[in-house]
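Moderator note: this is an archived Q&A kept for reference. The question asked for a predicted structure of one protein chain; the sequence and the answer are reproduced below.
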Amino acid sequence: MYKRVELTDTIEVPPPLLGDVSPDLVKRLLQDKLEGRLDEDVGSVVSVIDVQDIGDGRVLPGRRGHEGSVYYEATFDAVTFDPQMQEVVDGEVVEIVNFGAFVGIGPVDGLLHVSQISDEYLAFDEENQQLASRESNQTLGVGDAVRARIVTKSIDERNPRDSKIGLTAKQVGLGKHGWLREERAPAAGE
């Protein structure tokens, strides 16, 4: 789920930039520091939008960083993405592997395990980079739009790439968008 939140963080301003401690400078420094970072409490910081307040600067002796840097506490608005358990999300298949499909949902990818895609057996077609059913000839490949539900979530703040989000598409109303349209088409023609 995307949210607009108000956050507070400390930003380091190195000596060459101390002449212009403006909201624009602090915003750029916050963007460099935070955008793309995962946090257990707020999720992934997508964008720093607006700096609300910049506190008084402090020199912190013995602090690692640039010699002579000044540290400011800033309050700012940010857009975050925090996937919630049981949330239904739309995404795009970004990679097909023998055990399932990785689906881009916002700034992160979730795994749609092959057992969670369909009740039919789906074989991995490495040559065409897709999962295919022999029963119904349905396929799932890179670029396909998918609706799924988040069923597991493990966020690793230290190594965001190691975070894991598990998805399922085995309930009514979930799955590849094309399959969902096909299911609705006969009902519309009746």
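Archived answer notes: The first strand starts at residue 2 and ends at 13.
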